[in-house]
Amino acid sequence: MKRSLITIGVIAVVSSACAVMAKGGIDENSLGLDKGSVFDTNERPAFEVKAAPPGGGNQLTTRSYQDAPPLIPHSVDGFIPVTLANNMCMSCHNTPDKIGKPRAEGQPVPIPMSHYMTGAYGKPDAGLKAKMDMKKVSGSRYVCTQCHRPQTNAQPLVESTFGK
Ligand code: HEC
Ligand code: HEC
Asked: What is the pLDDT of residues 32-76, one digit of tens each?
């Protein structure tokens, strides 16, 4: 008896909440990041990657915040998509013997140590050394473009007040 009363009460609360939402509704113009209705096909503002090929005089970018994945400062023409059979990024950046050594301008930045560790997001854990397999990045780091993006001149879709 008590249980069925509770159930009826819960159903009543949920359905009245739904009724309020349906009545007030959310305006179709404020549902998406694009200005305008979600039922329209909005034109994306054009943007381009303004960078030379690797080693073509690109400057490394400043990180957005500590531990942020750095932006790719060079063009990625011909390097993407990253597939199981073809990872061009690895062909230049997989140089663990150069980690921590001075880098001449125009040389690839070595993939950092964190990317060779297995385990949850490269977190150091017990038996770390044994788990590290240099020359073979962790599976969670294989698709570089999941985290590293080329820099473009795209304008933000919405204003951001994010600070460091
Ligand atoms: C032909 C060699 C080459 C290939 C292929 C390549 N890179 Fe690079 N990468 C470089 C060089 C060289 C630099 C240093 C900047 C420059 O000179 O352009 C660099 C810099 C970077 C940086 C900046 C690191 C920092 O500390 O700021 C990132 C990130 C990066 N590359 C990611 C990638 C990804 C992801 C791919 C694959 C989509 C890729 N690179 C493919 C050579 C390469
Ligand atoms: C899961 C996200 C993720 C993936 C996937 C990933 N990275 Fe990174 N990368 C990061 C983060 C976060 C940093 C900065 C912190 C650090 O050094 O670990 C970074 C740093 C770097 C740096 C700068 C190293 C330095 O010394 O300044 C290079 C170069 C780089 N990654 C290359 C690559 C390449 C090449 C791949 C693909 C094989 C790749 N990353 C895949 C997240 C990622």
From this structure: 777 788 888 878 778 888 899 999 999 999 998 988 999 999 999
> Ligand 2: distance of its center to the CA of 143 in Å?
10
152, 47 Cβ separation under 8 angstroms: yes
Residues 6+ apart with CB under 8 A from 117: 123, 124, 128, 131, 132, 138
Of the two residues 129 and 99, the one the predictor is more confident about is 99
Q: Which amino acid is at 118?
A: T
What's the mean per-residue pLDDT of the chain? 80
User: What is the distance between the alpha carbons of residues 31 and 22, in angstroms, rounded to a whole number?
Assistant: 15
User: Distance from the CA of 31 to the center of ligand 1, in angstroms?
Assistant: 37
> b or e along 115-137 (b: 16 or more beta carbons within 10 Å of the residue's beta carbon)?
bbbbeeebeeeeeeeeeeeeeeb
Contacts of 90 (CB under 8 A, 6+ apart): 111, 137, 144
Ligand closest in space to the Cα of 73: 1
